[in-house]
Amino acid sequence: MAKTVEQISSALNLSITTVRLVLNGQAERYRISQKTQKKIQDYVNKYGYTINHIARSLKLNKTETLGLIVPNLSNPFFSSLAESMELSCRSKGYRLMICCTHNDPEHEKKLLASLEERNVDGIFVVPVTEETQMYHIKTSNKPIVFLDRDFAQNDSSWVVSDNFESGYALTSSMFKLIQKPIVFFAGAPILPPVKERIAGFISAMVENGIDKKDCEVFYSQTDLVNDGELLMKEYIETHNDIPQNFIASSLPILEGIISFLRQHLGYIPDSLNIGAFDEHIMLNFLANNIWSMKQNDKDIAENAIAIMNNKILGEKSSDQIKIKTEIISRLKKK
Amino acid sequence: MAKTVEQISSALNLSITTVRLVLNGQAERYRISQKTQKKIQDYVNKYGYTINHIARSLKLNKTETLGLIVPNLSNPFFSSLAESMELSCRSKGYRLMICCTHNDPEHEKKLLASLEERNVDGIFVVPVTEETQMYHIKTSNKPIVFLDRDFAQNDSSWVVSDNFESGYALTSSMFKLIQKPIVFFAGAPILPPVKERIAGFISAMVENGIDKKDCEVFYSQTDLVNDGELLMKEYIETHNDIPQNFIASSLPILEGIISFLRQHLGYIPDSLNIGAFDEHIMLNFLANNIWSMKQNDKDIAENAIAIMNNKILGEKSSDQIKIKTEIISRLKKK
DNA sequence: TTGTAAGCGTTATCAT
DNA sequence: ATGATAACGCTTACAA
């Protein structure tokens, strides 16, 4: 199978050019005779022909492939982002190579290098640290669009959610119902989205008459399930009680918090009012009042690929786009 | 940046071969002078060098890249499978290209063709239908390892979970506690895993003295959230009641079931006993007794890549491996 | 110790 | 209407 053009042409006693012209649909333009066309078509129908994209890439110096580097796929936000990115890329005629860094900065650098070696046309990155982001900006010679977060605050291109607004809206919504202070469990406050969500949270609290020093924020190191557990543990140790109203800065953090409660108490009190960043249908599983801020990953993906396309086409735009989030509330029926 | 070997050699007035030898770590073998080596090293340190993997691939006819085709990434099982696959591949020196079919057979065929055009060294597929699986087997000229399901029942290579045993174990475990008939909500019974899980379920029920005709199985078309909702709707319409004890054939189906209950009743009765295929930490969110069968995606990934490696090395093994699953039970404290 | 040259399968340009 | 050929950057065998 998988004849090359060379094989086809020699089998049919035609020149490579002739075969290529009909294979590339330029038969009419060059007025290749019907007979020749048919001969070639028949042969291809019989034996098949799969173009060698590698050779094509070498010649044209483009691969029609883009790279996506995310921390992981177990965070549902990243997996749905990856899925949306893959869809958007394909609709623009690109393949997507998805890689995970597992939060390892060195790994992230190696992945970027490896994508460049493979000559992808452009790279999307959810950077793990400020340092890696700066490194990529400095060393890469491919178009880069950063996703989900921007540490750099320079003229690099990025598409992120409007996290301040998101934190503000979530907090306001919750406060309207519960009228009480809310605790914020923050995964990794080094991450700009977390920082901004906290800022939005505090801003909304203050606006609702809560003193800034009464806004409790618990910090952790990373955005993983384990840290959610530690955060809740820490709260319980310091307060000798569980928090009635809280917000989790990401789904993995929430997963950890709930897991810890389940272990600690044996159940999840359904009186808790819970706010969450990122939406997931499994939030339905909770019996509580629950508000979640859904990021619009389709929108993020489409904007990101549009920017990338511009860059590839040589327009040196350095676009920076904030995408609106949407609140989903699930309230108990009384 | 990104000098090519050609550029380096002409800049330093050395031959291409010389530069290449030191870049490929063969300097000692060919006794390149220290001075020359240093000159090259310094230059590369200063200007950088990223090998053109595309050109290399064209010459060597291998890309060190594998393809993975899954239905989607929103099903947490597939996203964690993809993550594990990516890890395993990388540990063996391969890149992984992840693509989603969104359950579209034609799409699946196109993706496979496109991976072949890109000359990947091998392809992992979670096939959507028997027809596509057969098609791949017949038309592909790359090594293929099927994952999660095998429709073909011939000598193709696959790695799947032991789904009969999985269904049997889950049902037995649940029955031990509840001693009552259990309802099975089946996503897409055309899928071999679902079929086998049902067979295991029935086998366990019968063994526990339940008459086979009292084993209720509700069927649907696909494995998506929407079908879970329809299944529960159908049950409620025919029984005028909700099922006390049930099993969902996949997480999306369970998500649909729970969502429907939440809409229909306004809450999830915590008396329900729930069995689920595939594990997810968010099952912690449910207040119910819940048993889940965890597939060992790391094991699946490692076996799959091992088989692939053999195939690539030319050993015509057609391995077929069933991976054990593990039960996770979360029982309410009394 | 260093250099030369063929070839991988395309594309693109120029001849016939 | 069809054919010949250079070039993309790499590997590899062989020559000097």
From TrEMBL, chains A, B:
GO biological process: transmembrane transport
Molecular function terms from GO: DNA-binding transcription factor activity; transcription cis-regulatory region binding
InterPro entries on file: HTH_LacI, Lambda_DNA-bd_dom_sf, Peripla_BP_I, SBP_2_dom
Pfam name, any one: Peripla_BP_4
TM stretches of this protein: none
Residue span, HTH lacI-type domain: 3-60
Matching PROSITE patterns: HTH_LACI_2
Keywords: DNA-binding, Repressor, Transcription, Transcription regulation
PANTHER family: CATABOLITE REPRESSOR_ACTIVATOR, LACI-RELATED TRANSCRIPTIONAL REPRESSOR
Protein name: LacI family transcriptional regulator
Taxonomic source organism: Gilliamella apicola
